[in-house]
Design brief:
It is found in: Nucleus. It catalyses: a 5'-end (N(7)-methyl 5'-triphosphoguanosine)-ribonucleoside in mRNA + S-adenosyl-L-methionine = a 5'-end (N(7)-methyl 5'-triphosphoguanosine)-(2'-O-methyl-ribonucleoside) in mRNA + S-adenosyl-L-homocysteine + H(+). This is Cap-specific mRNA (nucleoside-2'-O-)-methyltransferase 1. With about 475 residues, this protein is an alpha/beta fold. It folds into 2 domains: about 350 residues, Rossmann fold (3-Layer(aba) Sandwich), CATH 3.40.50; about 80 residues. Helices cover about 45% and strands about 10% of the residues. The chain contains 19 helices and 9 strands. Helix 2 packs across helix 4, helix 6 runs parallel beside helix 8 and helix 8 packs antiparallel against helix 10. The longest helix has about 35 residues. The radius of gyration is 31 Å and the shape is globular.
Amino acid sequence: NKALTKFYSQARVQVFATSGSGSKTAHKNRAADKLLQVAEAEGVDMWTYLETHFPSNDYTFCDVCSSPGGWSDVLLKRYKGVEGWALSLPIDGCYEKCYYPSLMREERFHAHWGTDKTGNVYRGDNLTAFSEAVHNRVWGNTEGEGEGQRGCALFMADGGFGIRKDEQGLHMENYQESLSHRIVLSEILSAVLTLVPKGCLVIKLFDCLTTATVSAVAITAALFGRCYVVKPASSRIVNSERYLVGMDFMGEGVTADKDKVIAHLRSLHEQGFEDDETVQPMGDGPVDDVKAGRSPVSPDSFLPSTCVMGHSAFCASMTDMNTVVLERQVLGLKTVCDLAYCLKEKGGSAGRDRGRERGGRRGPPSQGRERDRGQSHNRGRDTNRGRDTSRDGYRGRDHRDRDRDSRGRDQGRRQRDEYDSYRRSDRDRERDRERDRRDRDYDRRDSRGYDRRDDRRERDTGYEYKRSRR
């Protein structure tokens, strides 16, 4: 329903305040908030794990398909000794637009574009070149025994496709998981090629219902000592987004053969897809082929079905995870849609607070009009309903001036803002005068806290003054 789209957005922000655009913290975007929530999730605690196994905090991290670099910005600000390597598609063929300008100026951040300078993770030679560039950097304690480590301690990937509506205006989000199989496989292969033992992995997924996605989680669980699927609070509850977290890469208890896994993933990456090395624009994926039953986007599974279905504990955990996440998603969708229909019936009047949820103007929208009406009521009275007029910004003005302002709402608001700026300037000047007075008092005191002026008086008059501490 096209007419319901704008009311749906209003209802979603009102029901789930964290689903609005922009970061709710001091970081650059909402993706940074998601990374922090994933790393600090109950039972995960990835920051503590990294600080325990890499105490020098001078490791290398990889940031793949994460333009414009919100995740890299978090790591570089959190740890002063880390170094980041990034691989992503340039925006409109421009490399400078791919990442934040502050990241491009950062000496510890290195943007890599692969052998063909496209940053396309679908090409195996680009992944190989990126892995070699990361391994050329030696980090860790190189003093004494050992030669340090080569590779990354943390691999992050936030790749995905934006799904547009079809010709009839219908949403195609149900196909997002199938369309993302190829990019998920590319990210897992790149992670296995670059991670060092004990390293960590964070990859974005869309649903975990197809056998290809389930097998991708199974491969991660086989390579890492700990494996989680996390739905952060900043990720909209009404969509299928979630994050795959792997910790303790090739640690104790991991029996998988890394070389065989790499060979298997390379074979899938090179032969399991159609011979198409180009990346389509966002939202122009092969939706029609998926509708028709064809599967050009990925093979049915990354592993034989017997390898996955033979592990009852893994299948049970996947079922429990899907049940919890999908039940919350269905409940969230029902709540948002019900409110959207209510907003449509009321003409959207209940959505006036949307701007405040997104960090806009504080206070109710009718605050200025209520204040104007309240001032108009006080005509001929000596007091303004007990309000301090000096605090209200109308110093030296009578009620007739205030009534005149209330006739035009926009004019009154501009004048109030102007007087508020004057009032703030008065406060700033008073604060500066108080600070200067304290500085002068401090300069008059000696090391014992006595007033130095008493010494000058005794010297000038010969009279002994009683000294007192200030």
